[in-house]
């Protein structure tokens, strides 16, 4: 399509009625599939009566079936003895406070039992995306959630996102049915396979449950693993013999203890000797910095962190799969001060479960290092330490808050402020260039999107703490991470963290949106607010169908899709003969129409000045009507060329707001 | 030649570099005597390949030969690097980031596209200079090269494209 032809397309698909009144199937077919497969399919219906019925059906709007809200409104029906194995397990999940389940049908006995217990449940379109949804939910709440899929294909569909959750150290409960023990190795029926070997290296612990009367015991194993130490996914697969086993009373279960008996709330705490050493090192340092990572979030230790930082003027930089446990607006925050990293003379890694290697964090090589971690066996891995402290993040911060003498470091505060200003100036310069490129090309440069998000979410009428963001995408993320801010715990889910999966972003959005919709954990003050997600045209392919899930559950979201007609790494293809085609998509694809076809809204944005109005409009509709919008932002792949469009794809500095490796 | 028989600056350079190796910052640290009293040090640090540092006590120079390959001369990158190095001695920088020109001065040499960093060390400031040289390399990789040089990093330092 030529550019002149492209401009004939309306810049935005403006709703003529309330967005929630539904999308006419005829209007959708008429605009997007006029001479395509839909018409062929209708013509192929054959007899006249069938055609007439099909014509009438095109007037039917997309709508949520009444059974959806009705079944969600039903009162919980917790199981009582006699129970089956699935019900025993679900009851244990309820007692443990499992906060949500995201699934596709399959593993029927278990998911139905969990729903009946009253645990919030969500049914989506692919198991992989539901796995990401659970991961996203956990990353912004700190609460444990589960995903579930059917045996064989449903389970294997989850693998990529189990890997992502594992790399992010997410306490994710992975459930799957798995046929019957009695049929193992036979290929009787379909979907047989050994699951546990497939999650080797992607989990903290797992078990194929084969002894029916140990089902409660293994629920205890699972939650003991999920709630202690360094978290990672736990994977349980349920053969039919376990899920369907009948128990008339508790005596038929070998172990049936309350959680107070099978696990402890006790946390590893630092020795007084180690605390004294740390205090002395901090006292001697001139420019100390805490790297506050995953453990701080899961220990909900943000108050203790702030007290420690303020007591002794210690800078704090965030890293990890979620951001906001130390506000970017705090004068001691270094998350948007990358240049200050090079000045640090003492690094204090707290809860940094995913360890960088030497040189991946930008600290000066003369900086001393304290690492605080609950796993003694991990201290000293990758980065040598001057002091290792075996402790949970929360316990260590509380001990330091008690022991640290007050200290003032005004010069260090000034340097942090100067570094933050320098970073903002660099971002402004990126935006200035991006705006010029946008005008030169009549397309939307990623810096314009990033700046627009910042203007609307943090500098307009919306309280800056309100909006929870799924920060995803590949190339677009290199810009948006620079502009997105976190002012309170769980405000940003760092999508591509460590595993680098680009596709789960809409899946994450389902979970993050569900968390905000229900006001779980740190999302409580923002209950019902819209969430915003950033992804790319490569990423949207993996989980875009979950727009339907967002629409079905009226989870208010705005999905920003950076559409540059290519995989983000497209330049790799031009270094080799006959390769470029593998990296490119068709140009000007209309992802917003997919959104419309799935019951959401869509807008197509081709000019820089249209982005902010579209974002504001979509946010408003999400807030007032619970309708999700996909903003398809048209760009071009050449924006990644450093020579023609400097800075091209910006590089990142870790730790801090740009980081996603560690 | 043993450390004790070397010049104070040679000894300071050797001890300074050894301390990074002892702390685990450098891996595969090796010290090799070169000709005419010069010493060469090799270690793994920020890049996949070894970093080389040489100290010549007679000329009082610390050299990082061919630290950056494939930098065209003249080019915008070459000019930007020279500007970046000049700024390292700016009075605007805090002391802990600044290279005091009275104790060490920095320049670079571009030969056939290979950039060598040279620090001229004032007598008696070997310990200072070696610390500044290592910090300078860190600043080059985490500061200067984090500018518009992503493709350069991919092509020359095997930086992951993902």
- Count of individual beta strands of chain A: 20
**Strands in their spatial order, largest beta sheet of chain A:** 11-16-15-17-18-20-19
Helical coverage of chain A, percent range? 25-40%
Integer-rounded radius of gyration of chain B:
16 Å
Into which percent range does the helicity of residues of chain B fall? 25-40%
User: Total helix count of chain A?
Assistant: 26
Sketch the major β-sheet of chain B: 6 strands, antiparallel
Query: Low-confidence parts of chain A, pLDDT < 50 over ≥5 residues?
Result: 1-17, 23-47
* Oligomerization state: heterodimer
Question: Per DSSP, what share of the residues of chain A sits in E-state strands of 2 or more residues?
Answer: 5-15%
Give the uncertain stretches of chain B in residue-range form: none
Q: What's the average pLDDT of chain B?
A: 94
The arrangement of helices and strands of chain B along the chain is HEEEEHEEHH
Which homologous superfamily in CATH is the superfamily of the largest domain in chain A? Thiamin diphosphate (ThDP)-binding fold, Pyr/PP domains
Question: Strand tally of chain B, please?
Answer: 6
Q: CATH top level of the largest domain in chain A?
A: Alpha Beta
Amino-to-carboxy terminus distance of chain A? 41 Å
The gross shape of chain B turns out to be: globular
Short description:
The complex is a heterodimer of chains A (662) and B (162). Chain A is of the alpha/beta class.
List keywords for this structure.
heterodimer; A: 662 residues; alpha/beta; Rossmann fold; 3 domains; 7-stranded mixed sheet; 6-stranded parallel sheet; 26 helices; 38% helix; globular; disordered N terminus; B: 162 residues; alpha+beta; 6-stranded antiparallel sheet; 6 strands
């Amino acid at each position: 399509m030529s550019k002149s032809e492209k401009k004939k397309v309306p810049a935005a698909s403006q709703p003529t009625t309330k967005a929630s009144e539904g999308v006419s199937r005829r209007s959708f077919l008429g605009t997007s599939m006029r001479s395509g497969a839909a018409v062929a399919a209708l013509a192929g219906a054959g007899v006249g009566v069938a055609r007439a019925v099909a014509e009438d059906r095109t007037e039917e709007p997309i709508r949520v079936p009444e059974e959806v809200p009705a079944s969600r409104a039903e009162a919980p029906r917790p199981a009582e003895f006699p129970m089956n194995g699935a019900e025993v397990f679900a009851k244990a999940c309820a007692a443990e406070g499992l906060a949500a389940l995201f699934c596709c049908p399959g593993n029927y006995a278990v998911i139905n039992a969990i729903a009946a217990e009253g645990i919030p449940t969500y049914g989506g379109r692919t198991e992989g995306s539901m796995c990401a949804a659970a991961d996203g939910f956990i990353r912004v709440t700190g609460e444990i959630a589960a995903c579930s899929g059917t045996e064989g294909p449903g389970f294997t569909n989850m693998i990529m996102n189990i890997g992502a959750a594992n790399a992010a150290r997410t306490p994710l409960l992975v459930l799957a049915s798995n046929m019957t023990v009695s049929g193992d190795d036979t290929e009787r029926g379909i979907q047989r396979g050994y699951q546990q070997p497939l999650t080797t290296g992607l989990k903290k612990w797992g078990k194929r449950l084969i002894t029916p009367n140990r089902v409660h015991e293994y629920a205890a194993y699972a939650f003991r693993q999920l709630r202690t130490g360094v978290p990672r996914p736990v994977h349980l697969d349920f053969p039919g013999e376990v899920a369907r086993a009948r128990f008339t009373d508790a005596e038929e279960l070998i172990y049936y203890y309350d959680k107070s008996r099978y696990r402890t709330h006790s946390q590893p705490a630092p020795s007084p000797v180690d605390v004294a050493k740390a205090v002395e090192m901090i006292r001697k340092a001139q420019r100390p910095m805490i790297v506050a990572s995953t453990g701080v979030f899961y220990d909900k230790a943000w108050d203790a962190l702030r007290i420690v930082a303020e007591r002794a003027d210690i800078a704090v930089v965030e890293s990890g799969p979620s951001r906001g446990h130390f506000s970017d607006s705090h004068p001691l925050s270094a998350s948007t001060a990358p240049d200050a990293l090079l000045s640090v003379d003492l690094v204090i890694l707290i809860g940094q479960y995913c360890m960088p290697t030497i040189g991946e964090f930008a600290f000066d090589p003369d900086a001393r290092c304290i690492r605080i971690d609950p796993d003694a066996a991990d201290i000293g891995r990758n980065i040598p330490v001057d002091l290792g402290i075996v402790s949970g993040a929360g316990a260590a911060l509380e001990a330091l808050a008690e022991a640290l003498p007050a200290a003032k470091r005004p010069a260090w505060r000034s340097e942090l402020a100067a570094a933050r200003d320098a970073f903002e100036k660099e971002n402004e310069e990126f935006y200035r260039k991006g705006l010029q490129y946008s005008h030169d090309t009549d397309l939307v440069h990623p810096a314009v999107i990033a700046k627009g998000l910042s203007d609307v979410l943090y500098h307009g009428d919306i309280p800056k703490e309100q909006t929870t963001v799924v920060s995803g995408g590949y190339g677009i993320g290199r810009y948006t991470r620079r502009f997105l801010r976190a002012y309170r715990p769980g405000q940003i889910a760092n999508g591509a963290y460590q595993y680098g999966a680009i596709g789960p972003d809409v899946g994450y959005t389902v979970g993050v949106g569900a968390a905000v919709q229900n006001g779980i954990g740190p999302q409580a003050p923002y209950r019902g607010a819209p969430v915003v997600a950033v992804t790319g045209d490569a990423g949207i392919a993996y989980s875009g169908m979950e727009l339907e899930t967002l629409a079905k559950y009226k989870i208010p979201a705005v999905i920003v899709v950076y559409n540059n007609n290519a995989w983000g790494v497209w330049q790799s293809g031009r270094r080799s003969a006959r390769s470029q085609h593998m990296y490119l998509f068709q140009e000007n694809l209309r992802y917003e129409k997919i959104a419309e076809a799935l019951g959401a809204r869509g807008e197509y944005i081709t000019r820089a000045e249209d982005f902010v109005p579209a974002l504001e409009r979509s946010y408003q509709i999400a807030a007032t009507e619970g309708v999700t919008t996909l903003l398809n932002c048209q760009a071009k792949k050449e924006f990644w060329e450093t020579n023609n469009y400097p800075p091209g794809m910006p590089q990142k500095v870790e730790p801090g707001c740009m980081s996603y490796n560690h | 030649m043993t450390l004790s028989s070397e010049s104070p600056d040679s000894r300071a350079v050797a001890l300074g570099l050894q301390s990074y190796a002892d702390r685990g910052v450098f891996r595969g640290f090796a010290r090799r005597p070169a000709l005419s009293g010069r010493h060469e040090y090799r270690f793994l640090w920020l890049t996949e390949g070894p970093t080389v540092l040489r100290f010549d006590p007679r000329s009082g120079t610390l050299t990082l030969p061919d630290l950056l390959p494939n930098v065209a001369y003249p080019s915008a990158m070459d000019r930007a690097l020279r500007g970046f190095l000049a700024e390292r001695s700016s009075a605007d920088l805090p002391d802990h980031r600044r290279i005091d020109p009275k104790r060490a001065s920095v320049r670079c040499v571009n030969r056939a596209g290979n950039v060598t960093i040279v620090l001229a060390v004032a007598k008696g400031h070997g310990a200072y200079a070696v610390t500044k040289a290592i910090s300078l390399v860190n600043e080059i990789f985490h500061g200067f090269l984090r500018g518009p040089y992503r493709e350069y990093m991919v092509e020359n330092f095997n930086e992951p494209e993902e």
